[in-house]
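Notebook entry, structure prediction.
Reason for the run: the old model in the group folder had no record of what sequence produced it. Starting over properly, with the input documented here first.
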Amino acid sequence: MSDGKTFAVVASNSPQAQAALGELLNQYKTLSPDEADVIIALGGDGFMLETQHRFMQMQKPIYGMNRGTVGFLMNEFSLESLPERINKSETAKIHPLHMKATTITGETYEALAINEVSLLRQTRQAAKVEIHVDGISRVNELICDGVLIATPAGSTAYNLSAHGPIIPLGAAVLALTPISAFRPRRWRGALLPNNARVEFRAIEAKKRPLSAVADYTEVRDVLHVEIVEDLDTTIQLLFDAEHNLEERILNEQFTP
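New structure, fully documented this time:
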Protein backbone atom coordinates (compact mmCIF):
# COMPACT_ATOMS: atom_id res chain seq x y z
CA MET A 1 0.00 0.00 0.00
CA SER A 2 1.18 3.50 -0.73
CA ASP A 3 1.48 6.27 1.83
CA GLY A 4 -1.43 8.56 2.66
CA LYS A 5 -4.21 5.99 2.99
CA THR A 6 -7.17 7.22 5.00
CA PHE A 7 -9.18 4.92 7.23
CA ALA A 8 -12.52 4.47 8.91
CA VAL A 9 -13.05 2.42 12.06
CA VAL A 10 -15.87 0.15 13.22
CA ALA A 11 -16.03 -1.83 16.47
CA SER A 12 -18.06 -4.57 18.08
CA ASN A 13 -20.22 -3.80 21.12
CA SER A 14 -17.92 -5.60 23.55
CA PRO A 15 -16.37 -3.42 26.30
CA GLN A 16 -12.89 -4.33 25.09
CA ALA A 17 -13.61 -3.25 21.51
CA GLN A 18 -15.39 -0.09 22.59
CA ALA A 19 -12.46 0.91 24.79
CA ALA A 20 -10.08 0.34 21.87
CA LEU A 21 -12.35 2.45 19.65
CA GLY A 22 -12.15 5.34 22.11
CA GLU A 23 -8.35 5.13 22.22
CA LEU A 24 -8.08 5.06 18.44
CA LEU A 25 -10.42 8.02 17.92
CA ASN A 26 -8.45 10.05 20.47
CA GLN A 27 -5.20 9.38 18.65
CA TYR A 28 -6.06 9.37 14.95
CA LYS A 29 -8.28 11.21 12.50
CA THR A 30 -10.82 8.93 10.82
CA LEU A 31 -13.36 9.25 8.01
CA SER A 32 -16.66 7.57 7.28
CA PRO A 33 -16.51 4.16 5.56
CA ASP A 34 -17.83 5.79 2.37
CA GLU A 35 -14.92 8.26 2.28
CA ALA A 36 -12.03 6.17 3.64
CA ASP A 37 -9.58 4.02 1.71
CA VAL A 38 -9.38 1.33 4.39
CA ILE A 39 -11.80 0.08 7.04
CA ILE A 40 -10.40 -0.91 10.45
CA ALA A 41 -12.43 -3.51 12.35
CA LEU A 42 -12.02 -3.86 16.13
CA GLY A 43 -13.37 -7.10 17.61
CA GLY A 44 -13.09 -10.84 17.10
CA ASP A 45 -13.51 -13.17 14.15
CA GLY A 46 -17.31 -13.00 14.39
CA PHE A 47 -17.25 -9.23 14.10
CA MET A 48 -14.78 -9.45 11.22
CA LEU A 49 -17.27 -11.65 9.38
CA GLU A 50 -20.01 -9.11 10.09
CA THR A 51 -17.79 -6.31 8.80
CA GLN A 52 -16.99 -8.17 5.59
CA HIS A 53 -20.69 -8.67 4.92
CA ARG A 54 -21.57 -5.10 5.83
CA PHE A 55 -19.05 -3.54 3.45
CA MET A 56 -18.85 -6.30 0.84
CA GLN A 57 -20.31 -4.21 -1.97
CA MET A 58 -17.78 -1.43 -1.34
CA GLN A 59 -14.96 -3.94 -1.89
CA LYS A 60 -12.64 -1.83 0.27
CA PRO A 61 -9.67 -3.35 2.15
CA ILE A 62 -10.41 -4.33 5.76
CA TYR A 63 -7.73 -4.31 8.45
CA GLY A 64 -8.82 -6.15 11.59
CA MET A 65 -7.32 -5.81 15.07
CA ASN A 66 -8.16 -8.39 17.69
CA ARG A 67 -10.32 -7.22 20.56
CA GLY A 68 -12.14 -10.55 20.84
CA THR A 69 -11.11 -14.11 21.69
CA VAL A 70 -9.47 -16.23 18.97
CA GLY A 71 -8.84 -13.50 16.40
CA PHE A 72 -7.73 -15.84 13.62
CA LEU A 73 -8.56 -13.25 10.97
CA MET A 74 -7.29 -10.31 13.03
CA ASN A 75 -3.98 -8.56 13.47
CA GLU A 76 -2.50 -7.88 16.90
CA PHE A 77 -4.02 -4.83 18.56
CA SER A 78 -1.63 -1.90 18.79
CA LEU A 79 -2.12 1.77 18.04
CA GLU A 80 1.57 2.49 17.68
CA SER A 81 2.47 3.55 14.12
CA LEU A 82 -0.91 2.33 12.92
CA PRO A 83 -0.90 4.20 9.56
CA GLU A 84 2.54 2.75 8.78
CA ARG A 85 1.38 -0.76 9.68
CA ILE A 86 -1.60 -0.43 7.36
CA ASN A 87 0.56 0.95 4.56
CA LYS A 88 2.96 -2.00 4.85
CA SER A 89 0.28 -4.67 5.22
CA GLU A 90 -0.24 -7.48 2.72
CA THR A 91 -3.53 -8.09 0.92
CA ALA A 92 -5.37 -11.41 0.87
CA LYS A 93 -8.19 -11.55 -1.69
CA ILE A 94 -11.10 -13.93 -1.21
CA HIS A 95 -14.36 -14.60 -3.04
CA PRO A 96 -17.63 -15.50 -1.30
CA LEU A 97 -19.94 -18.36 -2.22
CA HIS A 98 -23.28 -17.59 -3.83
CA MET A 99 -26.17 -19.68 -2.50
CA LYS A 100 -29.49 -20.09 -4.28
CA ALA A 101 -31.97 -22.03 -2.15
CA THR A 102 -35.42 -23.21 -3.23
CA THR A 103 -37.96 -24.24 -0.61
CA ILE A 104 -40.57 -27.01 -0.78
CA THR A 105 -43.19 -24.32 -1.52
CA GLY A 106 -41.21 -23.05 -4.51
CA GLU A 107 -39.83 -19.85 -2.99
CA THR A 108 -36.26 -18.91 -3.94
CA TYR A 109 -33.71 -17.11 -1.77
CA GLU A 110 -30.17 -15.97 -2.58
CA ALA A 111 -27.32 -15.06 -0.22
CA LEU A 112 -23.53 -14.78 -0.08
CA ALA A 113 -21.30 -16.75 2.29
CA ILE A 114 -17.70 -15.85 3.11
CA ASN A 115 -17.07 -18.94 5.27
CA GLU A 116 -19.45 -21.70 4.23
CA VAL A 117 -22.87 -22.79 3.06
CA SER A 118 -24.35 -25.48 5.30
CA LEU A 119 -27.32 -27.79 4.92
CA LEU A 120 -28.61 -28.84 8.36
CA ARG A 121 -31.38 -31.10 9.63
CA GLN A 122 -34.26 -29.29 11.37
CA THR A 123 -35.69 -32.16 13.42
CA ARG A 124 -34.63 -35.26 15.35
CA GLN A 125 -34.53 -37.31 12.13
CA ALA A 126 -31.34 -37.56 10.12
CA ALA A 127 -31.15 -35.67 6.86
CA LYS A 128 -31.04 -37.42 3.50
CA VAL A 129 -29.24 -35.48 0.80
CA GLU A 130 -28.25 -36.12 -2.81
CA ILE A 131 -25.10 -34.28 -3.90
CA HIS A 132 -24.40 -33.19 -7.48
CA VAL A 133 -21.17 -31.61 -8.71
CA ASP A 134 -21.26 -29.93 -12.12
CA GLY A 135 -24.48 -31.74 -12.95
CA ILE A 136 -23.20 -35.20 -12.05
CA SER A 137 -24.61 -37.10 -9.06
CA ARG A 138 -21.64 -37.87 -6.82
CA VAL A 139 -23.47 -39.05 -3.67
CA ASN A 140 -26.88 -40.63 -4.28
CA GLU A 141 -27.94 -40.60 -0.63
CA LEU A 142 -26.00 -39.06 2.23
CA ILE A 143 -27.61 -39.79 5.60
CA CYS A 144 -26.25 -37.24 8.05
CA ASP A 145 -26.82 -34.30 10.37
CA GLY A 146 -25.85 -32.07 7.45
CA VAL A 147 -23.26 -31.19 4.83
CA LEU A 148 -21.34 -28.03 4.01
CA ILE A 149 -19.19 -26.44 1.36
CA ALA A 150 -16.44 -24.15 2.68
CA THR A 151 -14.08 -21.58 1.18
CA PRO A 152 -10.35 -21.63 2.03
CA ALA A 153 -10.93 -18.64 4.37
CA GLY A 154 -13.76 -20.56 6.06
CA SER A 155 -11.99 -23.91 6.14
CA THR A 156 -10.70 -23.28 9.68
CA ALA A 157 -14.19 -22.45 10.99
CA TYR A 158 -17.21 -24.81 11.02
CA ASN A 159 -15.56 -26.97 8.37
CA LEU A 160 -12.64 -27.77 10.68
CA SER A 161 -15.01 -28.57 13.56
CA ALA A 162 -16.74 -31.05 11.23
CA HIS A 163 -13.31 -32.68 10.57
CA GLY A 164 -12.96 -31.09 7.14
CA PRO A 165 -9.56 -30.20 5.65
CA ILE A 166 -7.73 -26.93 6.18
CA ILE A 167 -7.19 -25.30 2.79
CA PRO A 168 -4.35 -22.86 1.96
CA LEU A 169 -5.78 -19.58 0.73
CA GLY A 170 -4.28 -19.77 -2.75
CA ALA A 171 -5.21 -23.41 -3.40
CA ALA A 172 -8.27 -22.56 -5.57
CA VAL A 173 -10.31 -25.39 -4.07
CA LEU A 174 -13.42 -25.74 -1.89
CA ALA A 175 -14.08 -28.26 0.88
CA LEU A 176 -17.17 -30.45 0.65
CA THR A 177 -17.60 -31.88 4.15
CA PRO A 178 -20.32 -34.08 5.67
CA ILE A 179 -21.54 -33.36 9.20
CA SER A 180 -21.88 -36.51 11.36
CA ALA A 181 -22.37 -38.80 8.35
CA PHE A 182 -24.13 -42.12 9.06
CA ARG A 183 -24.16 -43.46 5.49
CA PRO A 184 -21.93 -43.86 3.54
CA ARG A 185 -19.85 -44.52 6.66
CA ARG A 186 -16.42 -44.12 5.11
CA TRP A 187 -17.12 -40.98 3.10
CA ARG A 188 -15.25 -38.06 4.61
CA GLY A 189 -15.93 -35.45 1.96
CA ALA A 190 -14.05 -34.12 -1.05
CA LEU A 191 -11.91 -31.27 -2.32
CA LEU A 192 -13.44 -29.54 -5.34
CA PRO A 193 -12.08 -26.97 -7.81
CA ASN A 194 -13.28 -23.51 -6.91
CA ASN A 195 -15.21 -23.22 -10.19
CA ALA A 196 -17.37 -26.26 -9.36
CA ARG A 197 -21.15 -25.93 -9.21
CA VAL A 198 -22.45 -27.87 -6.21
CA GLU A 199 -26.08 -28.87 -5.72
CA PHE A 200 -27.69 -30.32 -2.62
CA ARG A 201 -31.06 -31.99 -3.15
CA ALA A 202 -33.21 -32.90 -0.17
CA ILE A 203 -34.59 -36.45 -0.10
CA GLU A 204 -37.94 -36.83 1.71
CA ALA A 205 -37.90 -33.05 2.27
CA LYS A 206 -41.25 -32.89 4.09
CA LYS A 207 -40.49 -35.81 6.40
CA ARG A 208 -36.88 -34.76 6.98
CA PRO A 209 -36.88 -30.93 6.73
CA LEU A 210 -33.60 -29.12 6.10
CA SER A 211 -32.26 -25.60 6.61
CA ALA A 212 -29.71 -23.97 4.32
CA VAL A 213 -27.38 -21.47 6.01
CA ALA A 214 -25.05 -19.05 4.21
CA ASP A 215 -23.06 -17.46 7.05
CA TYR A 216 -25.87 -15.41 8.69
CA THR A 217 -28.71 -16.13 6.26
CA GLU A 218 -30.90 -19.15 7.06
CA VAL A 219 -33.57 -20.57 4.74
CA ARG A 220 -35.79 -23.28 6.23
CA ASP A 221 -37.59 -26.20 4.58
CA VAL A 222 -35.34 -26.25 1.52
CA LEU A 223 -35.73 -28.65 -1.37
CA HIS A 224 -32.76 -27.68 -3.54
CA VAL A 225 -29.61 -25.61 -2.90
CA GLU A 226 -27.11 -24.52 -5.54
CA ILE A 227 -23.69 -23.10 -4.63
CA VAL A 228 -21.05 -21.45 -6.83
CA GLU A 229 -18.14 -19.14 -6.09
CA ASP A 230 -18.97 -15.49 -6.82
CA LEU A 231 -15.96 -14.29 -8.79
CA ASP A 232 -17.55 -10.87 -9.34
CA THR A 233 -17.22 -10.06 -5.63
CA THR A 234 -13.77 -9.66 -4.07
CA ILE A 235 -13.09 -9.15 -0.36
CA GLN A 236 -9.70 -7.70 0.55
CA LEU A 237 -8.26 -8.48 3.98
CA LEU A 238 -5.10 -6.73 5.19
CA PHE A 239 -2.53 -8.50 7.36
CA ASP A 240 0.76 -7.50 8.92
CA ALA A 241 3.53 -8.92 6.78
CA GLU A 242 5.05 -10.98 9.60
CA HIS A 243 1.78 -12.77 10.32
CA ASN A 244 -0.28 -13.02 7.13
CA LEU A 245 -3.34 -15.18 6.52
CA GLU A 246 -1.53 -17.70 4.30
CA GLU A 247 0.94 -18.33 7.13
CA ARG A 248 -1.86 -18.63 9.69
CA ILE A 249 -3.72 -21.23 7.63
CA LEU A 250 -0.51 -23.18 6.99
CA ASN A 251 0.45 -23.05 10.67
CA GLU A 252 -3.02 -24.23 11.72
CA GLN A 253 -2.33 -27.56 10.02
CA PHE A 254 0.56 -28.21 12.42
CA THR A 255 -1.24 -27.10 15.59
CA PRO A 256 -2.10 -30.05 17.89
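Summary: The CA atoms of residues 11 and 251 lie 27 Å apart.
The old model has been moved to the deprecated folder.
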